[in-house]
TrEMBL record:
Stored Pfam families: Ureidogly_lyase
Lineage per the UniProt record: Bacteria, Pseudomonadati, Myxococcota, Myxococcia, Myxococcales
GO MF annotations in UniProt: ureidoglycolate hydrolase activity; ureidoglycolate lyase activity
Subunit (UniProt): Homodimer.
Keywords: Lyase, Purine metabolism
Catalytic activity: (S)-ureidoglycolate = urea + glyoxylate
Biological source species: Cystobacter fuscus
Protein name: Ureidoglycolate hydrolase
Keyword Lyase: yes
Keyword Lyase: yes
GO BP terms: allantoin catabolic process; purine nucleobase metabolic process
Length: 166
């Protein structure tokens, strides 16, 4: 049984898996007669290769019962996938490296501060969204395909490894 420790989500720690999406500390521009700040290009989106198109969705995620036994992860080989929580609720982000299958030895568990989202890079192995304590809504920017199974691989860890997330 593998029991990874939670880490705070930071851009540096998450860099090998994608990007942390949050309001930058600097930059941006004032718009709408001075009532709003606009921050562009906060994530590198990869959604439209090979005939795909952007798909904006809302996910309503039930809170997880911890500890959570994790035996498999998913990835989207042709696109990024962005999750942004609505309502300022922290959530868990579980990712791993691996080529043909997720490598449980590389698994990391991050906890967000409730104001952060994540943009998984194409091909990043990840667990579906894990809400903490209460139902959490997410704005999700992903890819729509003519055949949805073309862009979602879901595989168990090799050797029937089990990861316990708490």
């Amino acid at each position: 049984m593998i029991r990874p420790k939670r880490e705070a989500l930071t851009a540096a720690a998450f860099a090998g898996f994608g990007e942390v999406v949050e309001v930058p500390e600097q930059g941006g521009r004032l718009i709408n007669h001075g009532t709003a700040w606009r921050f562009d290009d906060v994530a590198a989106l990869a959604l439209d290769s090979n005939g795909g198109r952007a798909l904006l969705s809302l996910f309503r995620v039930q809170p997880a019962r911890l500890p959570l036994r994790c035996t498999r992860l998913e990835r989207h080989p042709m696109s990024s996938q962005l999750f942004l929580p609505i309502g300022g609720r922290p959530f868990l982000v579980v990712v791993a490296h691996g080529h043909a299958a997720p490598d449980p030895a590389t698994l990391r568990v991050f906890v967000t501060n409730g104001q952060q989202g994540v943009n998984y890079a194409p091909g990043t192995w990840h667990h579906p969204a894990i809400a903490l304590d209460t139902v959490t809504d997410f704005l999700v920017l992903g890819r729509a395909d003519a055949r949805p199974d073309d862009n979602c691989d879901e595989l168990p860890f090799p050797g029937e490894a089990v990861v316990e997330i708490s």
